[in-house]
Amino acid sequence: MTVLMSADELEAELRSVGAARYHNRHPFHQLLHGGALNRRQVQAWALNRYCYQAAIPIKDATLIARTDDPDLRRLWRQRLIDHDGTAPGEGGIVRWLALTEGLGLDRDMVTSRTRALPATRFAVQAYVDFVRDRPLLEAVASSLTEMFSPTIISERVAGMLANYNFITKETLSYFNARLDQAPRDADFALDYVKRHARTPDQQQAVIAALGFKCDVLWAQLDALHHAYVMPGMIPPGAFGYRDTWS
């Protein structure tokens, strides 16, 4: 592409990526929200998703360390507080562990990440590496999946509460804060990208960065679907290996 898009045209292109490629369209999420999974499969989802949740503040700290813009550092720092809190026992990661414990999973097993799927760990690390290695503008743009997260959170919470008798509002408390945090973060990142993507090449790079992040999220669900929906496909060492799934 050699034509520079307007800021509104760039935003429209970014939103079209989410409409086509965000992971709310993945079959595994449709099974999860629709009540078609058993308890062990939901446990597998929560355990594997912890790998991603735990990597988010590492990714954000990496981005902060890369910029000499104090305004960007100050605003992005809030993301660390959201996930890590300001004291032990606070923050999104603790609330995610409350979810896994509410599902009956051992905390040490979850936090060790050793029982997560290999593909989960590889996808999460690829995201951290992307934010570390790619231009800062692309690193910021990769966070723009948050533009679409309120929809999937609403679907997830409503569907899981309606369809699983082992799920409670308290179990899903992690998602309450994200309904406010994600739009706030997305608004800032979108404004940053629209202001700093000043050439056609930069605009295409930020669109590709969002596509990459969609791939990271999709790949994690591919791994879950392959391992826990398709019989006999759980890799050795992963959660549920040689267990009965019924």
UniProtKB/TrEMBL annotation:
Coiled-coil stretches are none
- Which SUPFAM superfamilies does this chain map to? Heme oxygenase-like
Q: According to the UniProt entry, what is the EC number of this protein?
A: 1.3.3.11
Question: What's an example Gene Ontology biological process for this entry?
Answer: pyrroloquinoline quinone biosynthetic process
What Pfam families does UniProt report for this protein, alphabetically? TENA_THI-4 (PF03070)
Task: Tell me the keywords, alphabetical order.
Answer: Oxidoreductase, PQQ biosynthesis
The protein's annotated catalytic reaction(s) are:
6-(2-amino-2-carboxyethyl)-7,8-dioxo-1,2,3,4,7,8-hexahydroquinoline-2,4-dicarboxylate + 3 O2 = pyrroloquinoline quinone + 2 H2O2 + 2 H2O + H(+)
Instruction: Give the function comment from the record.
Output: Ring cyclization and eight-electron oxidation of 3a-(2-amino-2-carboxyethyl)-4,5-dioxo-4,5,6,7,8,9-hexahydroquinoline-7,9-dicarboxylic-acid to PQQ.
Report the sequence similarity comment from the record.
Belongs to the PqqC family.
Q: Which HAMAP family match?
A: PQQ_syn_PqqC
**Can you say what this protein is called?**
Pyrroloquinoline-quinone synthase
In which organism is this protein found? Acidiphilium acidophilum (Thiobacillus acidophilus)
Species lineage: Bacteria, Pseudomonadati, Pseudomonadota, Alphaproteobacteria, Acetobacterales
